Amino acid sequence: xxxxxxxxxxxxxxxxxxxxxxxxxxxxxxxxxxxxxxxxxxxxxxxxxxxxxxxxxxxxxxxxxxxxxxxxxxxxxxxxxxxxxxxxxxxxxxxxxxxxxxxxxxxxxxxxxxxxxxxxxxxxxxxxxxxxxxxxxxxxxxxxxxxxxxxxxxxxxxxxxxxxxxxxxxxxxxxxxxxxxxxxxxxxxxxxxxxxxxxxxxxxxxxxxxxxxxxxxxxxxxxxxxxxxxxxxxxxxxxxxxxxxxxxxxxxxxxxxxxxxxxxxxxxxxxxxxxxxxxxxxxxxxxxxxxxxxxxxxxxxxxxxxxxxxxxxxxxxxxxxxxxxxxxxxxxxxxxxxxxxxxxxxxxxxxxxxxxxxxxxxxxxxxxxxxxxxxxx
Length: 377
Hints:
The protein is α/β, with parallel strands linked by helices. It folds into three domains: about 110 residues, no CATH class; about 100 residues, no CATH class; about 160 residues. Helix content is about 50%, strand content about 10%. Strands 1, 2, 3, 4, 5 and 8 form a six-stranded mixed sheet that branches. It has a two-stranded antiparallel sheet with strand order 6-7. Helix 5 runs antiparallel to helix 8 and helix 11 runs antiparallel to helix 12.
């Protein structure tokens, strides 16, 4: 029995609530199960309400496989657990005392439906990239659509999280560098952008910009005789148009549009895409249509979400642009189509890539809308 499965059970209220009694025999009524704590340290559920022998309690709930895990996790030393009003466990094996009080314990061992265990086992025993591939066919397609919508937003939020502390110019510059780096060399390009911040680079003329970036690039060329302390460029197996030398040159040429880019965010979605493509072509005709799409997805959409913290219209515009652009073509997107996801544009393909990377690849079926529904069938 895993703790995350018990959290899943509690969150969905999928256990027998009849004649609830604590481990010491007292009557228990659960008035409010609480709000799941998915991010912060501390108890698993906040703002719960329970009644024990006609006395109401308001506070937090902590969930463990065994009661003794309270001590294994050293919660007795953490003051953030002082407002725990109920300790929910699979097996009660030890009394827990905190601040001289004995914690009430609810044992769930005999209160969980057998079908939940069998459905979870079916997922856990499937070691393929998509544990649910044999079970998802029984699911209503509305759940797939629901997950598409939320996953796109989650992907954009995750992309800007690391850069959100930067000012607008630096934000665009860093995302532009990462985008030109692509999957293989994003860390190398980020290293360049961090080493040569936009505030410094913008003071140089075109020739000095090129010299500064190319000097930094030299440090990232792998030398088998030296210990590498920086993320060196990868070149093996890359297409000629995607080599670091080509991408660096394109990146240098595009830095000049950062200031102008900020000025035409007021355009409508389709106008913006047209204008952006034209500006990219003006500064570097070697940047392909596919690469333009890549920049729109990995630079412009996160940028609009960044601006969206000040005005929601930018987030809406990001979604419009994503719906205009064609879906990405790669193996993951094709496999997600086979699972039943409808992928018509980049909004959909970005969403399924997020589902794959954050749930399928990490086997977080309990946190996935689709996986949770399959277990709950």
